[in-house]
Amino acid sequence: MAAHGVRADRFGGRGPARQGSARQGLARLLSARLVAGATCAVLAAAGALPALGSAYTALSLRLEERFHTQVPGPPARIALGPQGRDIRFAGEIGAGTAARLGALLAAHPEVTRIHLTSEGGLVEEATAIGDLIAARGLATYVPDYCVSACTLAFVRGTGRALVTNGRLGFHAPYDPGLFGQVVQADASAERAAYVAAGVDPAFVAEALAVASDSLWIPEPARLIQARVATELVDTDRFPDSTLDDDPSSAGARAAILRALPLLGALARRGDVLDALAAAYLDGYRAGLPEGAALDRLRAGAERAIARILRDADDASWVATGRVLLRAMRGADPQACLTIGGEGNLLAAQDVLADDAAATVLARAAGQGARAGMAAPAPSARLARDCAGLIAAYADALARPGAGPVLRGLANRRVPPTREATALPR
Q1: Could you count the other beta carbons within 10 Å of the beta carbon of residue 425?
Q2: Which of 197, 270, 311, 398 has the greatest number of C-beta atoms within 10 Å?
Q3: DSSP 3-state assignment of 372?
Q4: If DSSP states are collapsed to H, E and C, what string results for 73-101?
Q5: For residues 153 and 346, what is the distance between their CA atoms, to the nearest angstrom?
Q6: Is 287 within 8 Å of 83 (Cβ atoms)?
Q7: CB-based contacts of 27, cutoff 8 Å, min separation 6
Q8: Which tens digits make up the pLDDT trace of 173-229?
């Protein structure tokens, strides 16, 4: 049975990811390829490969068929999304996957779209999934990556949407030999399937000319031009799919840490991370678009961090003030006011290229509630522009006992400056 993508031998790769599972899959791939490479190296050192040639290839295929050294990965997750209009598919396309999808579709005739996040798998199964998609007139959507055999299913959608910065990957099909050897297979069936789905034949020829142990990820404009995808969409278009492969509390926590790495500084505040992860999981289950879910996560994280900083001691505020001041100096005017006027470490982290924000946040988070907190000192005049706010921070940091003053500066939202007007009031 030909494979067209990543099986347990896991050739290929997942796109740069908004999802951690992509990195995990790539790690498994590299590990498995090292095993295969070591095996071939032993044979090569013994001078066996050149002598065996095609005979070795045929033997490798027969031995794999006999001993099944390619251990299948975990079954793909296939689940009905919120409101019952979407199916979320995540994982390897293995034996029996199409039958599982068919059963879910039969039970839910209201489904109109399928989200595909997959490293590929078996050609026959992917083709069968494509047949189900075409028969039901489903739209397809790739919220992250869909490579190898997965693309055979994707192109069967009535509408084929790819998220901005998403990845579609192509290469020739292969048969797995013993210990992961990649033996390129005849691609005529795949060529016919792509062309029948309306994909430009020149693109198909180029895609299937890519060696089986390589991967081509075309630019989005090329995918649209070749009629592989019909549209590029932003993350606010469809329900969030970032937890499709692991919709658990642990998966949600991992997702928020990937989305906002600064939250890693709250490792000792599991209560805060659990609350943020639970809210993110609730939004996923409710079908929030990814953009809206991330906006809500960021707002919640900003509130949580502000509460932690509010309880920090004066020494922590001096350290935080230095970080905020450095970020303000490198930010645009609006971000500068957010960083300094709100003490917003998330906005500061967006500007800084180091872990200074994480260091001061971890220090504050480790102090517990109301650890040595002093009342904010009133500022003589609230600066309404970035330059004035920078000057106020610099002046405070130049004086002893700056903690209360900095706390006061960072907890006063800077109102917009009113412009003079001749309009009637």
Answers
A1: 3
A2: 197
A3: coil
A4: CCECEEEECHHHCEEEEECEECCCHHHHH
A5: 39
A6: yes
A7: none
A8: 877 666 666 667 889 999 999 999 999 999 999 999 999 889 999 999 999 999 999
